[in-house]
Amino acid sequence: MDIHPLFDTHEHFETISAEVSNQITELILSSNPYAGVIFEHAYDWLTLNSGNRNNFKTYRTELTVFLNWLFYVRDQDLESIKKKDLDAYVKWCRTPPKELIGSCATPHFKEVDGERLQNPTWKPFVQKKNDEIYTLSISAIRTKLSILSMFYSYLNDEEYLEKNPAASLLRHGDYKKVKHGSADEDSEDIKSMSELQWSYVMDTATQMADEDPDKHERTLFIMSIMYACYTRISEVCIRPGYMPKMSLFRKDKKTGVWIFYVPPSKRNKSRSIPVSTSLLDALKRYRGYLMNKNVVTTLLPVPSENIPLVPRFKRGSKGEIAGVLNASLGIRQVREIIKDVFVVAADKLQSDGQTYDADEVREMTPHNIRHTGISHDININNRPLPHVQADAGHDDIQTTSLYLHTRREERYESAKGKLINPLI
Q1: Which of 56, 95, 301, 392 shows the smallest number of beta carbons within 10 Å?
Q2: Do the bridges between strand 258-262 and strand 249-251 make them parallel or antiparallel, or are there none, so unpaired?
Q3: What's the pLDDT tens digit per position in 183-197?
Q4: Whole-prediction pTM value?
Q5: DSSP 3-state of 333
């Protein structure tokens, strides 16, 4: 069975082994076209966690075992992995093939003539006593699933995946921890903002735009479109091979209504999202500011318009946008813009005595704006699930139905007026 070390030690992590690169390339060309993307995401996540050596060592070992199972045992991509598949992974780890069990821990890589090479004696599982049957404790399994859950959470934030089967298995599988004093129905798996929290966020963005339009009219528009159209951050920013333009706002030829068109990306299908009246007003406000800057000439986009959706007002400095005026902002810059709004909004909540809400807003990520827009449309605006499913780009309406939830505070509020005898 082909099982290979993938990630080197903390000291040598930045240099990826040529052997590993060749193996991933072979996978891409032969059986798993997504192997390279998956490996890149895993490498990036480990890089983010390289500050703590002990955590890094544990995480890289678990990802190495998991990716080997994914590539060479199951030959699957991450998107196709469901809770039942992860359960099969756990069972495989509990009773692995004998040839994958070593008698002692060995390095993943070794140095030969100054070159880092995969260690052929490395084994993903270790059984120190030969007279015992290899097994994993429930605690060890939970640790494995917890690490994978953190990795999946990262993939969710990066908008590569929308679900976290590892977290689901920890909550509902044979390995869940019994939590006393809480009920599963109260768990809020999809992190979104309440009406109050989102109102503070938008009031903050509006005030920032009023006080410093040159810096924050664009900020207000970013918040508006990501909420109203449930866009992923990668759908409004420049990325390799794609620069979103103002002409993505267009009139539908059949109905004449305004839509925002999202072209297909490497993991998501195209979709056309109807533009609400309030978003159209937000677009006009934003473009009115851009007209004053001589960036655009009309309040609404025209089909041939080539202006970036969220332009920077300085010349680009790197890559394909180097020297280009009004080039599009990148994902990192937009993340920072959104986080700045969250920080200011949280401070306002804090000063108004809303400490709990302030703490929650500080923990939000840009992707939570998408969750908030979807959740509000279903639970507050009462839009039909199939409509929201189409606008969100969910393949399965079951994904959309996960947003059919109410926060505990909202349920308690609605329960206040219940009568024991309604006819009295």
Answers
A1: 95
A2: antiparallel
A3: 333 434 578 999 999
A4: 0.59
A5: helix
